[in-house]
Write a structure and sequence with these properties.
With about 270 residues, the protein is an alpha/beta fold. It is built from 10 helices and 6 strands, in the order ββαααβααβααβαβαα. The protein is about 45% helix and about 15% strand.
């Protein structure tokens, strides 16, 4: 059994809806989790990792210098590389999704988790098939009590399973995804890192700014399989769902960034292409 730990980064908030995480066999996750906790305990010791706190030097990173923060990030990224976790992510631009799906009468159509699940599952299954890996994948998400994200994630998953083709479902477990607390499950902390950096990278590109992670040059050998939804992709999905194409409105991000941004390989400086 493979386990995919997934977290969202500011889902439903412009300019991008992002899901991201990592996939690995169960035995790999056990060893990785112990190693991750060891890094957290190193000075400056933190009890858990959250990307927003790390980048904002708040919460567990309050009082930590940027240099010490970056060194801890490098150590964590080195673990992801050492244990050969496979990154997965889906990014949907708000300014493309919302005009097309966000005001549709059916509630599930307006839920960005549905397309996010579809994108991650399709891209991951393509990778597993090409790698001749046949194990099923179990999905685990961050437990967020009282938050709409959990309800929307659950509903999005159910809609995804109803719409997904049989060959895709052959790789996906029948039962709904689990929701666990990221304070206890460090694999979800790693997922938070991936989702947070993916979203920040897209925002930097949108602003015409340089993209270089604070842990550079660590992580150059990390493998990531991701999907970035462009106008054409979402229009095709819309047509397959409703039998007609939506009215097409051209949109260019701030600073002229096109809707088909560069591969996520840029984000982690990976050898693979999306």
């Amino acid at each position: 059994m493979l386990k995919a730990y997934i977290d969202d980064s500011h889902m439903r908030q412009a300019p991008f809806y992002v899901l991201g995480g990592w996939v690995a066999p169960v035995k790999t996750w056990l060893a990785f989790s112990d190693a991750w906790r060891d890094v957290l305990r190193m000075s400056p010791r933190i009890e858990y990792f959250k990307y927003d706190e790390a980048m904002g030097l708040s919460g567990e990173f309050y009082g930590v210098s940027e240099a010490a923060r970056d060194e801890k990030l490098r150590l964590l990224i080195n673990l992801i590389e050492e244990y050969a976790l496979v990154g997965v992510a889906s990014a949907i631009p708000h300014n493309i999704f919302y005009p097309m799906f966000g005001t549709y009468p059916h509630k599930w159509v307006r839920n960005p988790y549905y397309l996010s699940f579809y994108g991650i599952a399709a891209r991951l299954i393509t990778y597993l098939s090409e790698s001749e890996i046949t194990e099923k994948v179990e999905f685990i998400f961050d437990f967020q009590p009282g938050a709409d994200q959990m309800r929307e994630a659950q509903e999005g998953w159910e809609n995804f399973r109803e719409m997904a083709p049989p060959e895709m479902l052959d790789y996906i477990q029948i039962h709904p995804p689990s929701f666990l607390d990221d304070r206890d499950v460090v694999a979800l902390q790693a997922a938070d890192l991936h989702a947070g950096w993916t979203r920040e990278t897209l925002m930097l590109l949108d602003q015409g700014r340089k993209v270089q992670p604070p842990w550079h040059p660590a992580g150059e050998k990390i493998t990531s399989v991701s999907v970035s939804w462009a106008l054409e992709n979402l229009s095709t999905i819309f047509h397959s769902m409703f039998g007609f194409r939506p009215v097409m409105i051209s949109y260019t991000f701030e600073y002229g960034m096109p809707t088909h941004w560069p591969s996520f390989a840029l984000f982690w400086q990976l050898p693979s292409q999306v």
